[in-house]
Design brief:
single chain, 88 residues, alpha+beta, Alpha-Beta Plaits, 4-stranded antiparallel sheet, 24% helix, elongated
Amino acid sequence: MGKVAAVYNVVPESPEVPVEEVMENIAKNAPAGVEVATMNVKPFAFGLKIIEVTGIMDDTEGLIEKFEESLRSVPRVQGVDSVTITLI
């Protein structure tokens, strides 16, 4: 069984939301079996910043969905968009 890298853009609710707080909660909420490999803050629009999150996990059925659900459940997150999912 191989490994999968899943990259998501996480969008906070507003420019006033501290991205550091969101990043802490992303790491805390990650399901068992998922390593949050990187989190990069990037400018988006109108002062809003997005967090590009890369999760590394085994290619196990349902684990990608659990990771995405954990990102959506982070407080003060408006949206989560999948960027890429690939075998590594």
